[in-house]
Every structure is written in C-alpha cells, then in structure tokens.
Amino acid sequence: MIEAAESMIEAVETAVPTAVGVIVVGHFPLSSGQWISPHSHTHHQLAWTRSGVLSVAVDDAYWILPPTRALWLPAGVVHRTGATRDALLCSLYLNPVRCALDWTEPTAVGVDGLLAHLIAYLAREDLADDARLRAEAVVLDLLHPVPALPIDVPLPVDERVRAVADTLLADPSDSRSLDGHARAIGVSRRTLTRLFVRDTGLSFDRWRTHMRLRAALPLLAEGRPVSQVAHTVGYATSSAFLAAFRRTVGTSPGRYLNREAVRDV
C-alpha cells in the first residue's frame, strides 16, 4: 500500500538561522505513515535519515530514501516529506547565495560513513567557526549524484479511473485484468484504456507496474526479502518482480537503493 494510513502534519515555515558558513542542520522526528504537508524552503535542502526510511514526493515523482541515500531539493521546490518507517528527518539547509552547488532539480546523492559522521558533526552547537567551515567544505565535496530516478505514479483525475487507481493503491497485489476493473466501474475496456492514457500518460499495465514497484521500494529499503516483497505487491515469483524492476528502472533494486545487498529469500 502506498502512503497507507498516513497522517498529515502541517509544515511550519521558520526562518533558517544565520550561520557563519553555508549549512544549518535541523532534526525532525517522523512516525511511520506521518507526512509533512506540501511546502518549500528559501534554502536548498538535503533530506536524510540515519535510521528508518524516508519518502519525498515532488508532484507525482516519489523518492525512497534509506540511510544510504539523501535527496537534494533546490530552494523553492514544493515537496512533501514522510516516513514509511519511524525516522528522524535530518535536514541540511544550504544558503543558496553562498553555496557552490547549483543543482536545479531534485537529485539523489549517496551517503557513506564519512558524510553521515560530518552531518552529525555539523549539528553540534559548540563548533568553532573555523572547524565548521572546514567540515562544510568536505560535505560539499562529498555530495555526488547517484542514479536513482524517481518512479512516477501519476494519479488520474477522472473519477472512474481514480476509483480503479485507488483500489490498486490500497492493494497492489490485486490481480484483476483491465477487463475486470472496467466491469467493476461499469465502463468498457476500450473506454478505461483511453481514460487511463489520457489522465496518466501511461497504459493501464505500465501504470500498475510503476505503482507496484513504488510500493515495493519502502519494503525493500526496510530489509524485507525480495520473495516476500514480490508477493506483497502482486508478483508470483521473485524473478518476475526483478525482471519488471530492471525493465522499468534500468537496474536492480539493490543498486537502486545503494545497498550492498537486498535479501533474496
């Protein structure tokens, strides 16, 4: 299920404190299923969690962030942030006037042990100015994009198509064919096919594949076995799920999540 039983909390827009350098670090606890309502920042943001799994949505694009990944959000980009598992959102706010990085699109970056340590180091309030400036310079050097494109699941507008989409979002393992869903909402297969493409830009089969893969990512990021995840999101076998993932995303789930391994049993 995607964003199941979510609770929404309002984003509180507060001024980012002035700092001697470029980076200010903030921490925000999030419970499983809790989302911060759509908002933006005057500063660039790097969203990361040391434990748990974060999700960040920008329009229909959706990133899953285990502790090995962070997401760069340029200043002004409207986004929602949530947790699919209890997490501590760690936000680095970077002054766009003084920041050497000028990435204009949301960008996933890898987080290794050194970067994680430096983020914790910069959260200290007792750092001397020169020590903070040296650490910030290293952090900026360590921010490198990684190939983690978001999986888009556009939500349809037509209420008939939205009813089908909501049914599948609630239960990705629903195996009914397009004909079965068309009968359930009282339209022809041809009409539902046309409406799906018009509203989402994707065929029914392709939309369902994207939806299933997106539902699978938080479960994989939590360390669940591929075989269990595949069954949960509607695939009969692990091999069918992995083939769909590679065909759609262009890489394996393990590489996508930047983990050393994803359990395959």
What does this protein look like?
This protein has 265 residues and is an alpha+beta fold. It folds into two domains: 136 residues, Regulatory protein AraC (Jelly Rolls, Sandwich), CATH 2.60.120.280; 99 residues, Arc Repressor Mutant, subunit A (Orthogonal Bundle). The protein contains nine helices and ten strands. The strands form two sheets. It has a five-stranded mixed beta sheet, with helices on one face. Strands 2-9-4-7-10 form a five-stranded antiparallel beta sheet, with no helix packed on it. Helix 1 runs antiparallel to helix 2, helix 4 packs across helix 5 and helix 7 packs across helix 8. It starts with 6 loop residues before the first strand and ends in an 8-residue tail after the last helix.
Features:
265 residues, alpha+beta, Jelly Rolls, Arc Repressor Mutant, subunit A, 5-stranded mixed β-sheet, 5-stranded antiparallel β-sheet, 9 helices, disordered C terminus
Quick summary:
The protein has 265 residues and is an alpha+beta fold.
The largest sheet has its strands arranged as: 1-3-8-5-6
What best-fitting shape do the alpha-carbon axes yield? elongated
End-to-end C-alpha gap? 21 Å
Kindly provide the name of the CATH class of the largest domain.
Mainly Beta
Compute the CA-based radius of gyration: 20 Å
Number of strands: 10
Following the backbone from N to C, one meets helices and strands in this order, namely EEEEEEEEEEHHHHHHHHH
